[in-house]
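=== RUN LOG ===
request id: a7f3
mode: sequence -> structure
chains: 1
length: 247
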Amino acid sequence: MTKNALVIGANGGIGNEVLRQLVQDEHYETVFSVARSALVGNHANNSKVQHKSMDTADEGEVKSYVDELRSAGKKLDLVICTTGILHQKGEGETPLKPEKRLEDMNSAQLAEYFRINSILPAIWLQHLVKVVAKEKAAIVFLSARVGSITDNSLGGWYGYRASKAALNMLLKTASIEYKRRAANTSLMCYHPGTVDTGLSKPFQANVKPEKLFTPEFTVSQLLSITAELDAEESPFYLDWQGHTIPW
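=== RESULT ===
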């Protein structure tokens, strides 16, 4: 049976690799992708890929996109959202840098963390329930171990930690409703480890070489783990080894 997948944030370091591996998977007939700009990479012209440039955090655009899929009779077997933000200093953007102490927090930075890491996933969760496959489906969001309230023993990184904890809670809460409306859908927050992408680049100095993963490795792990999920046990908060992280 052929399947359909959707990659949200397809131009990111992990998102582009997710797209590449799904395109190579013969089980997938169509791989839909969305990002803020035109698709990059060798698969940009692949016949299996249907890409749309859009603001993935805009509620109206997300609703319109999902409605288009629904109107076309498309059902999604797998959705992977790779969007997330830890730092930024581009022109016209809200400056972001993980806080080391209470005095480093400010409302603009906190709002931006929550806009991308929490609100964006919530918007997609709201609308994807209409287009997941009835037989079996999975929706995955990239979270982080530092989003675990139980596991927080170091402090710092207030906005990033809090926005990922909020993502975890939003997904866990949504899973209750998904069990009623899309019972065979698994929802998962995934901690990919420290991956060699732009997001982790400023923080790689203290990472042991064996703990700095390639996008290819962490995506391969993700897809293997996702294939084995049992919707009856949803939601999941797992790391790259498939180990459960305490909420």
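=== NOTES ===
Residues 158-181 form the longest helix (24 residues).
Helices lie at 13-24, 59-71, 107-128, 158-181, 215-227.
=== END ===
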